[in-house]
Amino acid sequence: MLPLPAAAPGATGKPWWWPAIPALVCSMLLAALVASAGAAHGTPFAVDEALHRWTVEHRPRWAVAVAVTVTVTGSGVPAYLLAMLAGAMAVRTRRWRGAAAGALALVSVQLPRIALASWLARPRPPAGEWAWSADGYAMPSGHTTTSAAVAVLLTAGVDRTVRGRARQPLLVIPALWAAAVGVSRVYLGMHWPTDVLAGWLLTALWAGLLGMFLILLRRRKSGAVPSNEGEGT
Q1: Can you tell me the distance from the alpha carbon of 217 to that of 115, in angstroms, rounded to the nearest whole number?
Q2: Packed helices 167-187 and 61-71: angle between N→C axes, nearest 10 degrees
Q3: Terminal CA-to-CA distance of the chain, rounded, Å?
Q4: Mean pLDDT, the chain, as a whole number?
Q5: Among 98, 136, 200, 203, which is disulfide-ready with 88 (CB 3.0 to 4.6 Å)?
Q6: HSE-CB for 152 with a 13 A CA cutoff
Q7: What whole-number distance in Å separates Cα of residue 150 and Cα of residue 152?
Q8: pLDDT above 90 covers what percent of the chain?
Q9: pLDDT tens digits for 124-166?
């Protein structure tokens, strides 16, 4: 088993179920969004068409170049390297195991995303309006889901390792980066806005479930969670 990061003071006192509340809310919103998209049989929502049309009509070259630079960091090798860095930051005693854990954590959100996208099979916007290359189905957005998951991991890594004046900015930067990646997917014309929203909701659900798992694991390791025998008395 991979070593767990040392628990912060008071961390074992948190109820194991507290991340389940946002996870439940996000799961309900995601289910409603996916059901609505499925019922539309590939037809985009009115808000999708309106925002997509606006972005297509407002894309100066310099803005497209910035969006492309941002979007390429949100998937593939850059994303996995950042996830591994986050894992190494969180598990400081054996960094290579932490890096492996970070990569595995990112894989764990990719599997349900791919399954959901394949099942829903929502078409992307017309390819002639793309400002960059893309493949696969539209919902949930892969770059959005990946970058948001990496942002969660990086925030956790920073929270465990960074102190001093740099702490607060470094806690915010991952979220800003992930938001920029999601927006870039819409701006470049390769995703409908609700594809990006679905990616964020899926990642929030994943983060809640991961948080529950880690809290339970940490509490059991510290002896804060009673054994099955104790629970049955």
Answers
A1: 27
A2: 120
A3: 29
A4: 87
A5: 98
A6: 22
A7: 5
A8: 66
A9: 999 999 999 999 999 999 999 999 999 999 999 998 888 888 8
Question: How is residue 198 written in tokens?
Answer: 């679905």
| pTM (predicted TM-score) | 0.85
**Coil, helix or strand for 25?**
helix
pLDDT for res 172: 94
The H or E element containing residue 216 is helix 193-222
Q: CA nearest 177: which of 153, 204, 206, 148?
A: 148
- CA-to-CA distance for 217 and 223, rounded, in angstroms? 10
Q: Cα separations (Å) of 226 from 86, 210, 221, 222?
A: 31, 21, 10, 10
Helix 193-222 / helix 95-120 crossing angle, nearest 10 deg: 140
* CA-derived radius of gyration, the chain: 19
Number of helices (H) and strands (E) in the chain: give both, helices first.
9, 0
Quick one: which of 152, 206, 198 has its CA closest to 177? Answer: 152
